[in-house]
């Protein structure tokens, strides 16, 4: 029997193959520094205004912010990334008021110490290896793991997108591919600057 082939256009997500096509030939720096990278990364305790500013400085929109945060559908985190939310949010032994209280209790039982780097916390409990829209269902219920996840509810545009992606996984998956392409365009070097890496995570 003839096999149906799905043509995946740039930035489109194929549900069956979980694929999207990215642009190639990106010129990157010849130096790779974790310290430099960290300076440019958002923080899990960032609020919405800071997140929007950080993304805008990389030419990424509110939509990119909302949809790329959906990458937290997969993977795990560790206690130091949420410790402040659980016990010391404003340095008064309080917890983050935006976090669902039952979920906060559950997380406090898992994270006994803010320095515990070994306990693994699934971003989406029970489904952290499946790339789907479950993350948005959690965020909408104030059960996003990070303050930065919950922050998406604090702006009308990003909040609208959280609810939209919660209700339409297909829309999320399609938009995700497009925003990954946008992210791949951040700070591309031009002319003879830098190099096109043979393996993207390493300098040649
Ligand atoms: C919006 C701002 C973002 C913040 C503040 C943020 C923060 C974090 C933090 C704190 C962790 C867990 C680190 C740990 O405790 O070990 C994490 C994990 C992760 N992030 Fe983000 N992130 C953001 C956006 C993104 C984006 C744009 C992507 C990709 C498109 C992404 C993909 C991931 C993945 C896949 C993991 C899991 C890693 C693993 O399982 O080892 N995040 N993020």
Automatic annotation (TrEMBL):
The protein's matches in Gene3D superfamilies, at most eight in alphabetical order, are given as: 1.10.520.10, Peroxidase, domain 2
List the top taxonomic levels of the source.
Answer: Eukaryota, Viridiplantae, Streptophyta, Embryophyta, Tracheophyta
The reactions it catalyses are: 2 a phenolic donor + H2O2 = 2 a phenolic radical donor + 2 H2O
Q: What's the protein called, per UniProt?
A: Plant heme peroxidase family profile domain-containing protein
**Protein purpose:** Removal of H(2)O(2), oxidation of toxic reductants, biosynthesis and degradation of lignin, suberization, auxin catabolism, response to environmental stresses such as wounding, pathogen attack and oxidative stress. These functions might be dependent on each isozyme/isoform in each plant tissue.
Q: Which GO terms describe its cellular component?
A: extracellular region
What the entry lists under SUPFAM superfamilies is as follows: Heme-dependent peroxidases (SSF48113)
The residues the record assigns to binding Ca(2+) are 132
Can you say where in the cell this protein is located? Answer: Secreted
Q: Which GO terms describe its molecular function?
A: heme binding; lactoperoxidase activity; metal ion binding
Which positions form S-S bridges? 79-111
Plant heme peroxidase family profile domain residues: 1-204
């Amino acid at each position: 029997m003839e096999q149906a082939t799905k043509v995946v256009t740039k930035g489109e997500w194929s549900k069956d193959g979980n694929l999207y096509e990215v642009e190639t030939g990106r010129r990157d720096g010849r130096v790779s520094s974790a310290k430099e990278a960290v300076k440019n990364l958002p923080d899990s305790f960032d609020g919405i205004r800071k997140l929007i500013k950080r993304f805008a400085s990389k030419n990424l929109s509110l939509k990119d912010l909302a949809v790329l945060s959906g990458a937290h559908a997969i993977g795990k985190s560790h206690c130091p990334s949420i410790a402040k939310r659980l016990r010391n949010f404003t340095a008064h032994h309080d917890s983050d008021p935006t976090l669902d209280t039952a979920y906060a209790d559950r997380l406090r039982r898992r994270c006994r110490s803010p320095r515990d780097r070994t306990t693994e916390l699934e971003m989406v409990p029970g489904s952290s290896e499946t790339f789907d829209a479950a993350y948005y269902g959690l965020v909408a219920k104030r059960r996003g793991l990070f303050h930065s996840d919950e922050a998406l509810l604090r702006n009308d545009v990003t909040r609208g997108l959280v609810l939209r992606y919660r209700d339409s996984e297909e829309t999320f998956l399609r938009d995700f591919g497009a925003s990954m392409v946008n992210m791949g365009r951040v700070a591309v070097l031009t002319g003879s600057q830098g190099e096109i890496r043979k393996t993207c995570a390493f300098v040649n």
